[in-house]
Write a structure and sequence with these properties.
One of its GO terms (cellular component) is ribosome. Its EC number is 2.3.1.266. This is [Ribosomal protein bS18]-alanine N-acetyltransferase. GO terms for molecular function: protein-N-terminal-alanine acetyltransferase activity. It is a single chain. This protein has helices at 6-16, 23-32, 76-90, 105-113, 142-146; strands at 36-43, 46-56, 59-67, 95-101, 117-126, 131-139. The two termini are 22 Å apart. It is built from five helices and six strands. It has one domain: Gcn5-related N-acetyltransferase (GNAT) (Aminopeptidase, 3-Layer(aba) Sandwich). The chain is of the alpha+beta class and 152 residues long. Strands 1-2-3-4-6-5 form a six-stranded mixed sheet, with helices on both faces. The structure holds coenzyme A.
Length: 152
């Protein structure tokens, strides 16, 4: 992800989330946060998905992941998250965590497919409707994430 991607990312963010990040938040991540790693998925010169994380010591924390509405349900989210997992391993992570709305069953299903398991709840984590967040963790098996031949 580069600064020039941000307008397209903010458009996807607004389509995907009730509490979308602002352009400033992404600028800050790309320019001031040394722990941040963000990537985009591009098709025909257009951003169709993106995801990011913070890698700190041996842990990676996913901050956001989204696929443009028209491109969902084609395996792209799985591909993007697999790429994030591989990148996290490259940066030395052995575990990955994220928060997801308890109502977001589609995302939870994706996460379970890629090795995440529920590990607790943060009550009222989402400020727009006080919804609880499910905390999920995955062990990153470097052998598995590096040789995921499904997409090679
Ligand atoms: C969550 C999201 C990134 C998934 O991306 P995607 O490209 O649509 O997902 P994929 O096509 O790779 O599907 C991956 C898995 O997710 C689940 N899934 C995807 N779409 C689904 C649907 N409509 N119904 C049920 N499960 C679904 C399935 O388990 C699927 O695996 P399978 O196809 O092998 O059964 C996408 O729906 C999105 O951008 N949602 C809005 C933003 C969001 O909620 N982000 C997560 C915040 S924590």
């Amino acid at each position: 992800m580069t600064l020039t991607d941000i307008p397209q990312i903010v458009a996807i963010e607004q389509e995907a989330f009730t509490g979308p990040w602002t352009a400033e938040a992404f600028v800050n991540e790309l320019t001031n946060n040394h722990f941040a790693r963000y990537m985009v998925m591009v098709h025909d010169d257009e951003v169709i998905g993106y995801g990011g994380m913070w890698t700190i010591m041996d842990e990676a924390h996913i901050t956001n992941i989204a696929i443009r509405y028209d491109y969902r349900g084609q395996g792209l989210g799985k591909r993007l998250l697999t790429e994030l997992q591989q990148t996290a391993v490259f940066f030395g992570a052995s575990r990955m965590t994220l928060e997801v709305r308890v109502s977001n069953e589609i995302a939870q299903r994706l996460y379970r497919k890629l090795g995440f398991e529920p590990a607790g709840v943060r009550p009222g984590y989402y400020t727009d409707n006080q919804e609880d967040a499910l905390i999920m963790w995955a062990e990153l098996d470097s052998a598995r994430t590096e040789s995921n031949d499904e997409y090679e």
